[in-house]
Amino acid sequence: MRDSPFVFPVKEAVYKVIGGRKLRFFVFEPDTGGMDRTAVLFFIGGTFGKTPNTPADFQYHAAYLASKGYVAICVECRTGQDEGFTPIQAICDARSAVRRLRGHASEWGIDPQKIVVCASSSGGYTAVSAIMFDHLNDEGDDPAISPVPDALVIFAAGMDAVDITERLYPGLLPEARNISPYHNVKKCLPPTLWMIGTAVPLFEQNRDFVKRMAAAGNDITWIAYEGMEHGFFRHGRHGNRPLDETRRWIAEFLKSIGL
Q: What is the DSSP letter of 104?
């Protein structure tokens, strides 16, 4: 995994152990206490390759939201660096993460009905798929606990699993349509904020998917950044202006839906 350490203080907590692999929450605690706080889980992109990004790549968004009173958590999932990895493992991990947090909400001082997922790129595919595909679960998960968050924030993400598997996991092609959001449009998402740069190669695919999902009854707010590339919102890009703007957009969006 590419080295990208946290520059902010975080608390680590293991949320899942599978095959000897300990998957962790990296928790940004707000200064405010309470038992009804909103939690935001972050899933970074660039995780399907052999040199994946790290959960720390979303730390500047997480630290900002923690300063606003949210419990912000950068989530570690299995990646392309894990032996035998496929995107199905990451999807199962995302479902486990929401269930773990919701099932132990009182330990974190959060409201179990105030859980948000924010994700980008491969993490965005993982997050949407974790909501759409109920048949993907790991043993040890409690099926009585919903893995669906109460709000969703997506930065540009490939929604076509046929394309993803053709490029990266050809052995998964027979299953591709069954785990492809693009091919399974339906009403299933919580209130969603979708942000993307118009220079992202998958811009048209994202726009088409969001239009069809909205037509199916999903509540999606769409924000396009003219001329911006994939990952435009990350720390260090464009003088951090998109970083600052997208952090504010997320906070304003969550406030507008009561979270």
A: T
Determine the pLDDT at residue 34. Answer: 84
Question: How far is the C-alpha of 103 from the C-alpha of 25, rounded, in Å?
Answer: 15
- List, in sequence order, the alpha helices (H) in the chain: 59-67, 87-103, 105-108, 121-132, 161-168, 203-215, 241-256
State whether residue 227 is helix, strand or coil: coil
Are 23 and 16 spatial neighbours (Cβ–Cβ below 8 Å)? yes
128 and 52 in contact (C-beta within 8 Å)?
no
Quick one: 17 exposed, middle or buried, by C-beta within 10 A (0-12, 13-18, 19+)? exposed
The mean pLDDT value of the chain amounts to 95
Whole-prediction pTM: 0.96
Query: How confident is the model at residue 4, as a pLDDT?
Result: 57
Kindly give the parts of the chain with pLDDT less than 50.
1-3
Q: Determine contact, residues 47/122, Cβ cutoff 8 Å.
A: yes
Residue 231 in tokens: 């990952």
Q: What is the pLDDT of residues 157-175, one digit of tens each?
A: 999 999 999 999 999 999 9
Do residues 54 and 97 touch, judged by C-beta distance below 8 A?
Answer: no
Would strands 37-43 and 71-75 be described as parallel, antiparallel, or unpaired?
Answer: parallel
Q: Phi-psi category of 239—alpha, beta or left, where left has phi over 0 and alpha has psi -120 to 50?
A: left
